[in-house]
């Protein structure tokens, strides 16, 4: 690869990394091209050498922001479904994640506005949601005929329910004051853990 091409790729990666952080922190509407380029140490005019529109940048930033999914979704060796859900709930639904959106999951910051968007943003959001749901479903047990109500659900349905609980719980907690927000996180966390367990399959 020519040095010029390599430098262009590195510059683009720097822009996307800054945009991913601002996207988590401010959402797409609050993330301006000018702010992204300034924080990347570049001029505003240089943006168009890498992206046609802000929507294209948002789509790339969303993909970058969700690359962390494997780190928090990967199960430990020998981990049961209940143990995996417990670990995910504790990692996602906690005060640190609530307080540091720029370093966390992008979905709470972008779901409402990107779902209303046109252009590349909505397909990009759908693709990242589907990838996350698919990875979650891989870690959830298959249903059996004698299972309880929760365990009788398909892995896909359990993944959808858990992601809705995690993202919704975090979004609501951030809209509350500190104490009420912490209580919301704790309640969502307890519910997720309880739903993953039954008497025949202790965590």
Automatic annotation (TrEMBL):
One of its GO terms (molecular function) is DNA binding. Pfam families: TetR_C_13, TetR_N. Residues 9-69 form the HTH tetR-type domain. The keyword Cell inner membrane does not apply. Residues 32-51 bind DNA. InterPro entries: Homeodomain-like_sf, HTH_TetR, Tet_transcr_reg_TetR-rel_C_sf, TetR_C. Keywords: DNA-binding, Transcription, Transcription regulation. PROSITE patterns: HTH_TETR_2 (PS50977). This is Transcriptional regulator, TetR family. It comes from Caenispirillum salinarum AK4.
């Amino acid at each position: 690869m020519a040095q010029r091409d390599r430098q262009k790729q590195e510059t683009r990666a720097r822009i996307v990394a800054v945009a991913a952080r601002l996207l988590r922190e401010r959402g797409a509407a609050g993330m301006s091209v000018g702010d992204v380029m300034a924080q990347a140490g570049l001029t505003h005019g240089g943006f168009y050498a890498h992206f046609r529109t802000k929507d294209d940048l948002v789509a790339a930033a969303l993909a970058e922001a969700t690359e962390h999914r494997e780190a928090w979704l990967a199960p430990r060796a020998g981990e049961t479904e209940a143990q995996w859900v417990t670990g995910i709930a504790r990692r996602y639904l906690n005060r640190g994640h609530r307080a540091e959106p720029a370093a966390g999951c992008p979905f709470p910051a972008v779901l409402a506005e990107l779902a209303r968007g046109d252009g590349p943003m909505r397909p990009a959001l759908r693709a990242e949601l589907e990838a996350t749901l698919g990875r979650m479903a891989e870690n959830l047990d298959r249903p059996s005929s004698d299972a309880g109500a929760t365990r009788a659900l398909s892995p896909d349905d359990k993944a959808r329910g858990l992601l809705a609980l995690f993202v919704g719980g975090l979004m609501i907690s951030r809209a509350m004051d500190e104490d009420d927000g912490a209580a919301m996180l704790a309640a969502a966390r307890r519910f997720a853990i309880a739903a993953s367990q039954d008497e025949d399959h202790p965590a």
